[in-house]
Every structure is written in structure tokens, then in C-alpha cells.
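Translate sequence into C-alpha cells.
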Amino acid sequence: MSSSLPGILADIADITDVETALTIAQSHGGIRVSIPPRAEDGHWLTELLGHELADRICKGLAVIDADGKLKGVQREVIPLGPASVLKAARRRAANALSAGKSARDAAQISGLHERTIFRMKKSDDDQGSLF
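Result follows.
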């Protein structure tokens, strides 16, 4: 995967580009969707991106089943996009801090800025331990 986006968004970014994947996340993030093996008129993806781009995504995500039939994506939840990437990074940082790592190490592990780690630590200090 060339993208740091989660799940199917990374696949879509690989097929098209990150901007298109983010458009889909903004429009349908957190929602369970189906994507046909070929673009269809009136389908949400075609309405959102146009027939040509939607068809490229549909074909790129389609698979051939055991019977040799082309199948699309069924009941897949579209990730929220950058929000979920940030949430995962914050979780990695919190785990690193809990394991006794320094703010610098937590920043490197999580991919967040050191200032973000310091703000996270301050917030935890202000709230006290919840456990």
C-alpha cells in the first residue's frame, strides 16, 4: 500500500489517488457500503465521482469468486479516513507512554509530533488516572 490510509481507503488510493479516497471517506466514512464489480448509473460511487473514476475503483476492487463470477465489495465499512489514522497514532503514543517510553520515543513510534505527545501527557496529568 502506498498510502497511510486505513483499510479499503488505502486500496482506493492505490487504484486512484489519496484525494479520491479522502473524498469517499468524507462522503461515506463510517457507513457500510457495497461496491459493484462495474460502475452502475445511480450508484452512490458513480454519483460521487463520475462513471469513469467509479468504474476504475469498482474494477480494481472486484474479485473473481470460486464459480468464476466477478464479484464486487459487499457490506464493507468505509473508514473515517484521517480521523481514524490520527486516532490510531494517538493510541500507539499512549501505549508507548504507558510502557515508560519518553515523549521523543513515543513521537517516533506513533508518527506524531513531540508537542502533541507533551499535550497528551499534560491532559492526562490534568485529568488524573482513570484506572
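Note: The first strand starts at residue 32 and ends at 35.
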